[in-house]
Fold each of these.
Amino acid sequence: MKILHEHITKHARILPNSIIKVDNFLNHQIDVALMQEIGKEFYERFQNENITKVITVESSGIGVAFATAMQFNVPVLFAKKGDPRNMTPDVYAENVHSYTRNATYRIAVSKQFLTKEDRVLIVDDFLANGQAALGLLSICEQAGAHVCGVGIVIEKCWQRGSVLLREKGVHVESLAEIKEITDEKVIFA
Ligand code: 5GP
């Protein structure tokens, strides 16, 4: 996806531990024109799957999920982190280890919003070790919902996320695949 590659090349900054900072356009300040294109691209790739819901984890996945769900004309469902007081106790939940924060936290969605009739597209801004996506996959499995695929904006190919997901038979689509980081520059696959 040319426009996404251009944004990454122009704006991405490399932090210690190979964390890619894209808060200029993706997960802090959001470039809405780019986000709309991201939504259209995921629609192109999953349009035959009869998606009924787009699911992600708060907060950095919400923009991606919203733009994608607009194209499918379906709701967004985002898993909440921690133990929110304003949530019913009736939840599907999973523990997830965060790569960027090096901490484990709980993600949860209310049972009323995810059912076995749902055909779900999981989306996120990054795929690294796959923990966020695997956590969402587990939540969908608990609900009996069918996972049609995982849509990722930026995949860090040297980490194991995509291998772990594909081993489980999940259809993964990544819009930008970064092979490595050399001299503080990203190298696309
Ligand atoms: P995973 O669960 O696949 O290990 O990591 C994905 C999650 O961690 C994403 O939700 C994303 O927010 C965060 N993440 C992983 N790697 C990066 C990175 O290089 N940059 C940023 N900004 N977030 C990342």
Amino acid sequence: MTSRTAGGGTRVDLHTHSTASDGLVGPAALMALCAQAGLDVVALTDHDTTAGLAPAAAALPAGLTLVPGAEISCRVDDGGRGISLHLLAYLFDAAEPRFRAARARLRESRVTRAERIVALLAADGHGVTWERVRAVAGGVVGRPHVAQVMVEAGLVGSVAEAFSPRWIGAGGPYFAGKDELDVLDAIRLVAAAGGVSVFAHPYASRRGAVVGADVVAAMAAAGLAGVEVDHPDHDPDQREALRRLAADLGLLVTGSSDFHGASKPQGLGAETTAPEVLSELLARGSGSTPVTGTGPGDAGSQEQHHDDEDGGRS
Ligand code: AMP
Ligand code: ZN
Ligand code: FE
Ligand code: FE
């Protein structure tokens, strides 16, 4: 096992996915992988759900700290163009009714939308069934699950090919959109639930559209705490531009792997967040608290998360 403190000190990865959404590793197994990767702190940020938090907390290896989180599907109207973007929410109270209801609506819409994609494929004679997609998605359903079934059915050679504009990628014949929260509303919802928000991978929009600095300024005015600058999808120029923007707007700078398992190249801890930035986020979030493992994978004593967030209706 890698030493937790070798060289760079505390290692913090604030963006990971489990099978509660479109990650390939279950939440408990993910915590073990985090310890093996030498992480000290990890945030579990599944898409539109907190369902993985309780099983992750219950399986924490000694010394590993779990920061509760979620990655929220959002949209912004930037000069007449609707742009999809992702908001990382941390340390919110998962039971707070308004934000909780908003997450439930997002998950419900993901089901409707995945069914529509399957129907579009079936209408053209492509053998993808909703039953199979539902079975492959252990929790919140996403296009990666549809893509996986398309690979199984031999329609495409890879998940990446499924995401191309020829298939279910943005603008493709089998693409369908899903409900998304207005990002300013989402930032306020997170804050009202005691949480803090960080703009996830601003340059990694799969629609190829990037929001302008004015949008980020509006997000900052609404209460955004930080920007995820160091992300595997960002090149050095993009990171530099984001670092300047964050400095201008007084936003914290985070870094994270956005680990999904073998479906993406990056490993856990591929990008990390400075411990001082983590301290600042922890100081600003009051809706829930991090949990630190006290024994070999059995830190379930501080049960405080609600695990009734499933993948939507089935
Ligand atoms: P959805 O949220 O259902 O629209 O699906 C988008 C999600 O699919 C993103 O958040 C990524 O996690 C994942 N994704 C996007 N492009 C790819 C790709 N080429 N290969 C694997 N996963 C992808
Ligand atoms: Zn994902
Ligand atoms: Fe994302
Ligand atoms: Fe993500």
Amino acid sequence: MEIKTIAFPLHSDKRGALVAVEQLKDIPFEIKRIYYIYAVQPGDQRGFHAHKTLDQVLVCVNGSCKVLLDDGKEKRLIILDKPYEGLSVPRHIWHEMYDFSPDAVLLVMASDLYCEDDYLRNYNQFLTFVNGK
Ligand code: TYD
């Protein structure tokens, strides 16, 4: 499985750092929604689903977390700990997020609005979906 990370333009100077992210340039889709996850309690896990049509890019804008990506054949573990690095999580990839640092803020840019029907929340359902396609 190919892991695609995206280096966002970083503008650092003596006043601090600024990261700019533009749709269709830094992100391979039009951004229709952003959401962010924070205040995850130690030991808690998030995700545990895949999407039928949604593409996403994750960036841990503060702190760190781990992301497990699974295409149904292969699993890869990625540590997100750079506010200027995005991780592409395209459709049909099962993803699990865990080991959030107490200060972690995980920002997600998504290609569409929230739609519960787009979720594959059961792992066996996910395997059937990806193996049948
Ligand atoms: P959930 O899918 O459980 O989050 P995670 O992927 O981190 O495990 O979503 C938590 C709740 O938030 C659930 O009730 C659905 C809701 N939600 C929205 O209303 N809009 C959104 O864009 C997202 C991602 C979730």
Amino acid sequence: MRPIVLPLPGNEALAASLEGDLGPLTVRRFPDGETYLRFDSPVRGRCVVLACTLDRPDEKLVRVILASATARDLGADRVLLVAPYVPYLRQDERFHPGECVSARVVADLLSTAADRIVTVDPHLHRLPSLPPAFDVVRSAPLISAWIASHVSNPVLIGPDEESRQWVSEVAGLCGAPYFILRKTRLGDREVRIEFPSDASWTGRTPVLVDDIISTGRTMISTVKHLRKLGTRPPVCIGVHAILADSAYADLQSAGADRIVTCNTIRHPSNGIDVAPSIAERLAALTA
Ligand code: R5P
């Protein structure tokens, strides 16, 4: 039997791109701010797919937990979660005494809530992997295809050591040179970027590639530095477009020629469509 696909609010387009019978889910807020949630079609014996990307996550996480527990309570055979962006993964270590290592807490929470979670390039750095329930779609082939068809003579730039994993893959796929910068984070909204002395971009267009653009400070510092060096205007590519507050406008003002992101989080910068890859992975899980 085909799965039943249920979008959490704001995820209707994502749900529509997935194979299955679209089902309605009523979600609203009680006057006290708590969530009311109701399944409007039977799920007994069905494979239930919840579609919910998890940027700005605190309210969404509660909805996902309530929806998955209710699906199981109503007799669903399996509950799968399609969450193209998984949050909280950057706090993957106790940097200061007493801190919550939210990466582990949230990864464990989601893998208990759903039988499988399909996501795109989760931020893995000090945490080497996620629990086995996670099924990861890689965006590198799509990003490299975009670069190959939109940028002539690219040179790829990864802003920090953890970006090496995807920048090197993207560079290999599109046959471009790359180098990795050294980043020191000085605070939530402050970073210091250092360029390698042997970096060369003569005749090339710098293409910054990072997994998450949040405050945009990492990319803004890099773009400003490149502009001072007199390079061609850089292209900025992010997998997950959090782009908090004025980050998008700030990055444009800093001198980025073009800002392109994957549509794991809906944003005007979305230009790389990961939906078919997600749908394909989900179809393999529900076959
Ligand atoms: C962290 O290491 C990530 O890979 C990104 O580099 C980071 O999240 C970017 O953050 P922001 O846009 O706030 O500088």
